[in-house]
Write a structure and sequence with these properties.
Elements: H1 18-21, H2 35-44, E1 47-53, H3 58-68, H4 71-80, E2 81-87, H5 92-106, E3 113-117, E4 123-127, H6 144-157, H7 159-179, H8 193-205, H9 222-229, H10 236-242, H11 244-263, E5 277-278, E6 286-287, E7 290-291, H12 292-309, H13 312-326, E8 340-341, E9 344-345, E10 355-356, H14 364-370, H15 373-382, H16 413-420, H17 424-445, E11 451-452, E12 455-456, H18 457-474, H19 479-499, E13 501-502, E14 507-508, E15 511-512, H20 523-540, H21 543-560, H22 594-609, H23 612-624, H24 626-631, H25 640-648, E16 651-656, H26 660-670, E17 677-682, H27 689-694, E18 707-712, E19 715-718, H28 721-724
Parallel strand pairs: 1-2, 16-17
Antiparallel strand pairs: 1-3, 3-4, 5-6, 7-8, 8-11, 9-10, 12-15, 13-14, 16-18, 18-19
Helix pairs in contact: 4-6, 9-11, 9-12, 12-13, 12-18, 13-19, 15-17, 16-17, 18-19, 18-20, 20-21, 20-22, 22-23, 22-25
Length: 730
C-alpha cells in the first residue's frame, strides 16, 4: 500500500520538554509521540522515524545542527516518514524498547537513538549519530541522506518484506523478555557464592593504574562500585565466603577509582559536581554534561567511601556533590531537583556557536590574566595547565579544545609544596585563592550551559536518599551543612508530593515542567522514590515519610507486579498500547535496576513494618532473575545486598525513648555503612503514631522507657551503651 501524502508541521512547541522544544525551529516537521501521531502513521501508511535524545547529550546537538536543520534532510524526512522527536527522560519506556533492538542488532547503542519503525511500531533499522553528507565525517562513509533514501526505497518497493522482518524482530524481543525472568524450580536456588563471582568479574576488568573498569570511554558505574565497597560491611558469613583478601582488594579497587575520579577532569574542579563520563582512560577529559542521576548516585558512593575510610578527599567530595544538588541551578524554586546541565555552551555572551566544555576549560593566557604570578605558578602545576593546552587531539574530534586545558589535580599538596619550596598551608591557601578567582571569572564572564529543568521523580528519589544519608552521617561534625542537606531532601519530597502525586489514587506522574507532565510514573519512579523516603525516615524518624513510602509501595505492586509469572516488577503498567514488550529491569546500568532497588525496598519495609508479605515479594523478586544472575552476577550487583537478606535475613534496630544507650546507638548507626540494617524510632521526640498503628509489634510499646533492641536471625537482644560499638561487627 503506497504512502499517502500529508502536510506536516513542526509540533515541538507543544511539548514541555526543553530537549524537544530545542527542535522547534527545525525545518524537520517533528511530531510528538502520541496516539494521534501513531494513528497518523497508520492512516498514511508511513514509517515513523523516531529520534530519541536528551538535553545534555552532545552528539544529539551535533546531529540536530548538522542534519535536522538541513532543508535537504528535512525534505526527505517530511515527504517519506512521520518524524517523531522524544525526550528519553520523559519516556524511558520507548527509549528502552528501541535501545534493546539497537543493541541486539548492532551490538552497540547510545544517543541520539534513531530508529525506523513500522506503523505497527515494529523496529526495522536503527543507529545513533549519522553524519550529514556535507560534514567531514559524512564524506568518508555512509551519510544520513544515504540511509534515508535507502529506507524510503525499501518501504516503497518491498513493504511486505519490511513489515514481516519487523514483525519477526518484535516476536524475538518478546520471547527474549520472557526468557529473561524464568527462574529455576526452587525459591532458594541462588547461593551467596554469586557475590564472590561478581567480585571476580570486576577484578578481571579493573584498571590498576587509573581505577575504574576497562579502557576508554570510562564510566563511573556507581552501582557496581558501591556493591564492591560494601562487601566488608556485611556480616562475617559473607566475608568468609568472599575471603578477607578479596574484600580488602574490592575496597582498594573502589578507593583507587574514587580518588582518580575526584582528582580528574570528570569532576568540576572549581565548581561542583561530576560530568557524565570520561572520554579518556585517566578520567582527564570528560563529556561535560552533568546528570542528576550520576551525581545522586555518586553522593551515596562517596559517603560510603568516607564512612569506611575517613579519607578527607571523600568527605570534601560529599560536601561538593551535596552542595551542587541543593543550590542553584540544580535545586529549583519548587524544591525539586533539575535533570541536567548541558555539555555545550558559548565562550562569551557575544558568541553564536556553542562548544563542548567551553564553560569548564581554561587556557594558560586566561590563568595569567586572572591570577597573580604566584597563583599561576602553583595552580598551573596543581591542575596541569599547559601553555599549548593539555587535551590530546585524538580525543578532540571537532577541534573545539585546541589550546585549552581541563583541570585535573596532579599533586597532593604536601608534594607540591616540597617541589616549590613552600609550606603545605601556603600552597593550600594559594590554590583556594586561585579557585575563587577562577570561579568568579567563570560565573561572571561565561554563559552557563543550558539547564534541563525537568523534575524527574526517579532521579529525585536517588538524590533525596543521598542527601538524607549525608545529613545523618555529618550531623555531628558539620551540623549546619547537615541541616541544609536535609532541607534539600525534604523540599524535593514536598515538591513531588504537592505537584506529582495524586493522593486519592496513590499514583505518581513522572515529570514536572511548567506543570505536571502527562506521562504516568514508571516502576523506577516508584522504586527510587520509595528508597529515598526510607532514607529520609531513618534520618528524621518522622513516620509520615514511611507512610508515604508504604502508600507508593502498594501502588507499585498494584500497577507493575507480575503475580501470574515469576514475580518481580515490570517497568511499565499492563495494557500500555505503545509498548511492544513489557520488560523487567534487572541489570544495573547508568541507573540502578528497578528490581534491584525494589527488592531492597521490600526487605526494608518488611523489617520496619513487620510485614511478611513484603519480605516474600522481595524474595520472589530476586528469585525471578535467578537464571540470569547465576550466569552474569557482575551485571546484577544492585541485587547483592538483597541476596544476602534473602539468605540471612534483615537486622532491625529499634531505639525507644531517651538515654545514653539510645543516643549512642543512633550516632553509631548514622555514621556506619550498614547493609540490610533498618532503624526505627519510638518516643524521644520521634513522630511514630502511624508507624505504631501499622506495625503490630509496636502498638503497646512504652515510648518513654529507654530501650535499644537489635533483632536478627529470629532473635532479639537488648543493648546497653557498652554493646553499641560492636553491634554491626559480626
Amino acid at each position: 500500500m503506497a504512502s499517502r501524502h500529508v502536510s506536516l508541521t513542526n509540533r515541538c512547541s507543544d511539548s514541555k520538554s526543553p530537549y524537544v522544544r530545542s527542535h522547534m525551529d527545525n525545518p524537520t516537521a517533528w511530531q510528538l509521540w502520541s496516539p494521534e501521531t501513531l494513528e497518523l502513521a497508520r492512516s498514511t501508511n508511513r514509517l515513523l522515524f523516531v529520534s530519541i535524545g536528551y538535553s545534555a547529550c552532545h552528539w544529539c546537538h551535533v546531529m540536530a545542527h548538522e542534519s535536522f536543520m538541513s532543508d535537504e534532510i528535512a525534505q526527505l524526512l517530511n515527504e517519506n516518514f512521520i518524524p517523531v522527536k522524544i525526550d528519553r527522560e520523559e519516556r524511558p519506556d520507548i527509549d528502552r524498547q528501541y535501545m534493546d533492538f539497537l543493541q541486539a542488532t548492532t551490538g552497540g547503542g547510545g544517543w541520539p537513538l534513531n530508529v525506523f519503525v513500522t506503523p505497527d511500531l515494529h523496529p526495522i533499522f536503527g543507529g545513533t549519530y549519522w553524519p550529514n553528507a556535507k560534514s567531514e565525517r559524512g564524506k568518508h562513509g555512509t551519510s544520513f541522506e544515504d540511509i534515508l533514501q535507502k529506507v524510503a526505497g525499501l518501504w516503497k518497493d518491498q513493504e511486505e518484506r519490511v513489515r514481516e522482518n519487523g514483525k519477526q524482530v518484535a516476536t524475538q524481543m518478546q520471547e527474549f523478555a520472557q526468557e529473561g525472568t524464568l527462574n529455576s524450580d526452587g525459591e532458594d536456588g541462588l547461593e551467596l557464592d554469586v557475590i564472590e563471582e561478581a567480585y571476580e568479574h570486576y577484578k578481571k576488568r579493573f584498571d590498576s593504574v587509573y581505577g575504574g573498569f576497562g579502557a576508554s570511554p570510562k564510566f563511573p558505574t556507581p552501582v557496581h562500585l558501591r556493591a564492591l565497597l560494601r562487601l566488608g560491611a556485611h556480616n562475617e558469613v559473607v566475608r568468609e565466603i568472599v575471603g578477607d583478601e578479596e574484600v580488602e582488594h574490592a575496597r582498594n579497587m573502589v578507593v583507587k577509582t574514587l580518588e582518580c575520579m575526584a582528582k580528574g577532569g570528570i569532576k568540576d574542579q572549581i565548581g561542583h559536581g561530576f560530568a557524565r563520563y570520561s572520554v579518556t582512560r585517566d578520567w582527564s577529559l570528560p563529556h561535560f554534561e552533568k546528570m542528576l542521576y550520576d551525581n545522586a548516585q555518586l553522593l551515596h558512593l562517596y559517603l560510603d567511601a568516607w564512612l569506611i575510610t575517613r579519607k578527607e578527599l571523600f568527605l570534601e567530595t560529599v560536601h561538593d556533590i551535596a552542595t551542587y544538588l541543593t543550590t542553584e541551578p540544580m535545586q529549583s524554586s519548587l524544591g525539586g531537583i533539575n535533570a541536567s546541565e548541558d555539555a555545550d555552551s558559548l565562550d562569551t555572551a557575544l558568541d553564536h556557536h556553542k562548544r563542548e566544555g567551553a564553560f569548564y576549560v581554561f587556557s594558560m593566557d586566561e590563568f595569567k590574566k586572572m591570577l597573580t604570578e604566584e597563583e599561576v605558578k602553583v595552580c598551573a602545576k596543581y591542575w596541569n595547565v599547559q601553555a599549548d593546552g593539555n587535551v590530546d587531539r585524538r580525543f578532540d574530534h571537532q577541534g573545539e579544545l585546541v589550546g585549552k586545558n581541563t583541570l585535573c589535580v596532579m599533586y597532593d599538596t604536601p608534594d607540591l609544596a616540597k617541589e616549590l619550596g613552600m609550606s603545605d598551608e601556603d600552597v593550600k591557601g594559594v590554590i583556594a585563592s586561585g579557585r575563587r578567582k577562577l570561579l568568579e571569572y567563570r560565573d561572571k564572564e561565561r554563559p552557563r550551559p543550558a539547564l534541563d529543568d525537568k523534575i524527574v521523580v526517579a532521579w529525585n528519589g536517588l538524590a533525596i536518599g543521598g542527601l538524607a544519608r549525608s545529613s545523618a552521617a555529618l550531623s555531628s561534625i558539620s551540623p549546619e551543612q547537615s541541616q541544609s542537606y536535609l532541607q534539600g531532601a525534604e523540599r524535593a519530597v514536598q515538591c513531588i508530593k504537592e505537584h506529582l502525586f495524586d493522593s486519592s489514587a496513590g499514583t505518581l506522574k513522572r515529570v514536572y515542567r511548567e506543570g505536571p507532565g502527562e506521562t504516568p510514573g514508571f516502576a523506577d519512579d516508584y522504586a527510587f522514590l520509595i528508597s529515598g523516603l526510607l532514607d529520609v525516615y531513618e534520618t528524621t524518624f518522622d513516620d509520615s515519610y514511611l507512610e508515604f513510602a508504604d502508600t507508593l509501595q502498594k501502588t507499585q505492586i498494584k500497577l507493575f507486579w507480575d503475580d501470574e509469572g515469576a514475580g518481580a516488577f515490570y517497568s511499565t503498567p499492563a495494557n500500555q498500547p505503545d509498548i511492544l514488550v513489557r520488560t523487567k529491569d534487572g541489570m544495573d546500568n547508568a541507573e540502578p535496576s528497578t528490581n534491584g532497588v525494589s527488592a531492597n525496598n521490600l526487605f526494608r519495609l518488611g523489617s520496619l513494618l513487620n510485614d511478611e508479605g513484603y519480605e516474600k515479594m522481595a524474595k520472589r523478586t530476586i528469585s525471578a532473575f535467578e537464571v540470569e544472575l547465576g550466569q552474569h552476577p557482575g551485571l546484577f550487583t544492585g541485587m547483592m545486598s538483597s541476596i544476602v537478606a534473602s539468605k540471612l535475613g534483615m537486622r532491625g534496630l529499634m531505639v525507644v525513648g531517651d538515654g545514653e544507650a539510645a543516643k549512642a546507638a543512633l550516632k553509631k548507626v548514622r555514621e556506619t555503612v550498614r547493609p540490610n540494617v533498618t532503624v526505627l524510632r519510638v518516643g524521644g521526640g520521634a513522630k511514630s503514631e502511624w508507624l505504631r498503628s501499622r506495625n503490630d509489634l509496636l502498638k503497646d510499646l512504652d515510648g518513654k522507657r529507654e530501650m535499644v533492641q537489635l533483632c536478627e536471625g529470629g532473635a532479639c537482644r537488648l543493648l546497653e551503651t557498652k554493646d553499641v560499638e560492636e553491634m554491626f561487627t559480626t
